[in-house]
Amino acid sequence: MSMERLGLWASTLRAEWPFKLRLRWWPMTMIGLFMACLLTGLAVVTTTHMTRTQFAELQRLEQEKNQLQTEWGQLLLEEGAWSTPARIEQIATERLEMRIPDVNDVEVIRP
C-alpha cells in the first residue's frame, strides 16, 4: 500500500513538475558537485604541500646565503690583514731577510 502511494506521488510529481529535466539531472548534479569538491580538496592539499616544500627550500637557501656572506666577510678581513704594511714588512724580514737600512748604510747619490 505504501509503495503504491509512493508511486502515485512520484507520477503526480512528474506530471505537475514544470521542470522535468531538473528532477532527472539531480543525481548527476550531486555527483558533479561531489567531484568538484573532491578535486578542490585535492588541489588545496597539493598546493599546501608545494608551498611548504618551497618554503623549506627558501629557508635552506637563505641559511646558505648567510653562511656565504659570513665567509665573504672573513675573506675581506683576511685580505685586509694580508695587505697591511706591517704584514708585508714582517714577511720581508722573515723570508727575504730584508731590513730597514741603518743611517750609516744610506748613500745619497746626486745627479
From TrEMBL:
According to its UniProt record, where is this protein mainly located?
Answer: membrane
Q: Does the keyword Cell membrane apply?
A: yes
Specify the superkingdom: Bacteria
Membrane-crossing ranges are 25-45
Ranges in coiled-coil conformation: 51-78
Query: Which InterPro entries does UniProt cross-reference here?
Result: Cell_div_FtsL
Topological category with respect to the lipid bilayer = Single-pass type II membrane protein
Keywords from the named record? Cell cycle, Cell division, Cell inner membrane, Cell membrane, Coiled coil, Membrane, Transmembrane, Transmembrane helix
Q: Which GO terms describe its biological process?
A: cell division
Where is the protein situated, by its record's location annotation? Cell inner membrane; Cell membrane
Quaternary structure and interacting proteins, as annotated: Part of a complex composed of FtsB, FtsL and FtsQ.
NCBIfam families, alphabetically?
A: ftsL_broad
Q: What's this chain's function?
A: Essential cell division protein. May link together the upstream cell division proteins, which are predominantly cytoplasmic, with the downstream cell division proteins, which are predominantly periplasmic.
Membership in a protein family = Belongs to the FtsL family.
Q: What is this protein called?
A: Cell division protein FtsL
What's the source species for this entry?
Answer: Vreelandella piezotolerans
Report which gene this protein is encoded by.
ftsL
